[in-house]
Write a structure and sequence with these properties.
8 helices; globular
């Protein structure tokens, strides 16, 4: 399917690997100029080179921490008028709720709520003026169902979801959409890291934790960054202009809900 966004410019935060990279690859394949971002210059440049070689796309690599004003400035200097913004960021590591400090709580809110809001504020009026905009927030299935040890991440992402719910309705008239993708368990470095830490909390081995997590998924497997990226690209496409304010859960059937 031609997604109708060839020639558009997309900023994809935290996209040197994992789900962010999956989104960057899918948007590059759709013909977008992609601005990718990460904090490790070596990893980021390797990713940029691989995407360029695979898709022939224009890829701009920006080394930056998107949670900082300087990092956001660097992204927008590379693409002052983005048509697509994919908000993504690392979350707080798993931790028992009794051990969460005030500082850790505030850092989680900055990473997973304030940062996406700040970036949206800086690009949305330009999108409205141009009559096209797609904002996709990568949140988590933990917005809908609790995950042990991820209470700070869950709370911040739920707050982000609520914040954008109203904003999405305010800007829809201008063909600007805002949607959220809620990933379940995907085969990424982040999943491996959280599995190890959650195994320690439960007092079992990472292998046991991995096997147990996979057994809980009706699809009996972890998702891939590639399939996640395809879903993101569709929400960013010209065909998704009538979809806004929605939460797309991609979890292999883990969440047991009819509606």
């Amino acid at each position: 399917m031609d997604l109708g966004i060839a020639g558009r410019t997309a900023i994809i935060c935290a996209s040197s690997k994992g789900l962010g990279r999956g989104c960057a690859e899918a948007l590059a394949e759709a013909g977008c100029t992609v601005v990718i971002n990460g904090r490790d210059a070596t990893t980021l440049e390797a990713t940029a080179s691989q995407i360029r070689a695979k898709y022939g796309a224009t890829v701009i690599a920006v080394v930056a921490d998107v949670s900082t004003r300087a990092g956001q400035d660097a992204l927008l200097a590379a693409a002052p008028e983005p048509d697509i913004l994919v908000n993504n960021n690392g979350g707080p590591p798993p931790k028992p709720f009794r051990e969460v400090s005030r500082e850790a709580l505030l850092e989680g809110v900055i990473q997973n709520m304030a940062t996406p809001v700040e970036l949206m504020q800086r690009v949305v009026d330009g999108m409205i003026a141009r009559g096209f905009g797609r904002i996709v927030n990568i949140t988590s299935m933990s917005v809908l169902t609790p995950l042990t040890g991820l209470d700070v991440s869950s709370g911040a992402r739920a707050g982000l979801t609520a914040f954008f719910s109203g904003v999405a309705r305010e800007v829809a008239y201008a063909n600007v959409t805002i949607n959220n993708i809620l990933p379940g368990m995907f085969d990424t470095d982040r999943l491996k890291g959280s599995t190890t830490k959650m195994a320690a909390i439960k007092g079992i081995t990472p292998e046991e934790m991995t096997k147990g997590r996979m057994a809980e998924i009706p699809a009996k497997r972890f998702g891939s960054a590639e399939e996640f990226g395809k879903a993101c690209a569709f929400l960013a496409s010209a065909h998704a202009g009538y979809i806004t304010g929605q939460n797309l859960l991609i979890d292999g059937g883990v969440f047991k809900g009819t509606f």
